[in-house]
């Protein structure tokens, strides 16, 4: 009996030591609100809206210390709709992110699985949506420059360690099709590279910037595999170069983003798009913040668009806030129909139906939203 007790104590001690070397964290965002859309197909709409300022998600992230600054890491992240309970990303269990890999303080991080590209991870933060607005303020119904966030499947990704505030990364997404290494109409190949700088090594800094380039070949006939813009244009290849930055000036902050997108080998030939965006935010108190910004999207032969964004945010606590946001889009310069991101159903646009489902019946679409968000 004595030996059994001693054995149990030793096992408990070793289990505790092992547990101290590993950790798993549950995290998430629950964001819900009420949206008014001025014109969708000629009618106004009032609806409950999930993920107004930040997409709803829950996830598990973990690590195991392997010694000498090396650790095994993983993330499982699910997107969902608060109002229906349905899983996002086409119903995938972990459709937002799922990867496993190794991270070293000295050599950087290498992961494999399904993840966002560097445009979303290193540039989207600097958009008006990322600073104070709602998701409807991303660039057009087809997310022309993928700032709204689109996953790369079958990917391998490497990031350098922090080098005096600088970081760089490269990602490659395989088509996973025999004979289709360069991508097929239903299985794309993706390359993404990124560069960032922050004096603190994080977004929480007095100033910082991020730059990224992502190219997708193939996938133009596969919604959910090819990009939303690529499917909308039926472009066999599409790439975006993006740059964003932020400077804090006391209680004020200025954010700016520029993107250039080139979609080639489409029924419209080569489509090029320049997008310019800037915003100003003011933290009136530790709990209250205001923001306003403007974006100009030039699709050249397809038309031009202006997107205005307003936001007010009030924190009830560190994890819970109330918000009111507004988005206004105006089409001109050859474009006859306004259609904000998310107001237009993703992947509903095509060369045969260029405006998609949910676009305005005229050149203006205005959206007002109020809601609550909780982080855990």
Give a written overview of the molecule.
Strands 1-3-4-5-6-7-8-9-10-11-12-13-14-15-16-17 form a 16-stranded antiparallel β-barrel. The relative contact order is 0.15. A hairpin with a 5-residue loop joins strand 14 (288-298) and strand 15 (304-315). It is built from four helices and 17 strands. Mean pLDDT is 94; it is low at 1-20. By secondary structure, the chain is mostly beta strands. It has a single domain, classed as Porin.
Characteristic key phrases:
mainly beta; Porin; 16-stranded antiparallel barrel; 4 helices; globular; single chain; 376 residues; disordered N terminus
In short:
The chain is mostly beta strands and 376 residues long. It is 9% helix and 51% strand. It is globular, with a radius of gyration of 22 Å.
Compile the SSE list and pairings.
Layout: H1 2-20, E1 22-40, E2 43-50, E3 57-67, E4 70-79, E5 97-104, E6 108-116, H2 118-122, H3 128-131, E7 151-159, E8 166-173, E9 189-197, E10 207-217, H4 228-233, E11 237-249, E12 252-266, E13 269-283, E14 288-298, E15 304-315, E16 320-332, E17 364-375
Antiparallel strand pairs: 1-2, 1-3, 1-17, 3-4, 4-5, 5-6, 6-7, 7-8, 8-9, 9-10, 10-11, 11-12, 12-13, 13-14, 14-15, 15-16, 16-17
